[in-house]
Design brief:
single chain; alpha+beta; six-stranded antiparallel sheet; three-stranded antiparallel sheet; 16% helix; Phage baseplate assembly protein gpV; coiled coil; Vgr_OB-fold_dom_sf
Length: 179
């Protein structure tokens, strides 16, 4: 009898050890720093390496309510992977912060900034600034305030109306249209 009882006790201990190991693994997987390996913008999913453990495709979180954001991560970007129940396949990703490879782009408080390639958007209590090679607006524009333009040219309907424009004149009549 005691041998059978002892065998059951050993069997139960082995089972409990497996349960504890699974729980430890799930706890370890709840929050992990990760590095993006692949991004699939079409599905909104990424695969990450979480300190040697490669995830299945999982979504990155975005604002998706009345305001909708789209900011897909990049390969090698640092992320934080959250798996509330410890199952990486049911997890999600959040931006993980700056790294030695991609440091913080600004060193001021009370402002926001965004850099995408050669385009920089900043905002503070003194105003907004966009620095970009090309700025396109589609739609109507209403400006309630003064406008100052500093540049070498200004065109309207492909006609020069800047500081170097000339008028076609037919003396002694009034000035004609800009050329």
């Amino acid at each position: 009898m005691s041998e059978a009882l002892f065998a059951q006790l050993i069997k139960r201990l082995v089972h409990l050890e497996r349960v504890v190991q699974r729980q430890q693994m799930r706890i370890n997987n709840m929050i992990r720093e990760a590095k993006v390996l692949e991004v699939d913008p079409a599905t909104g999913m990424a695969i990450v390496d979480a300190h040697g453990v490669v995830s299945p495709p999982i979504p990155w979180l975005q604002q998706a309510g009345d305001v909708v954001d789209w900011e897909p991560p990049a390969v090698n970007q640092r992320m934080m992977m959250f798996s509330p129940n410890g199952d990486m396949g049911r997890g999600f990703l959040l931006p993980g912060g700056y790294t030695e490879q991609v440091g913080q782009p600004f060193a001021e408080g009370a402002m926001f900034g965004r850099v995408i390639g050669n385009t920089k958007l900043t905002g503070s209590a003194s105003g907004y600034m966009v620095e970009t090679p090309t700025f396109t607006i589609k739609g109507n524009v209403l400006i309630d305030g003064d406008v100052q333009i500093n540049g070498s040219s200004l065109r309207h309907n492909d006609k020069n109306v800047g500081s170097t424009h000339t008028h076609v004149t037919a003396p002694p009549g009034p000035p004609g249209v800009p050329s």
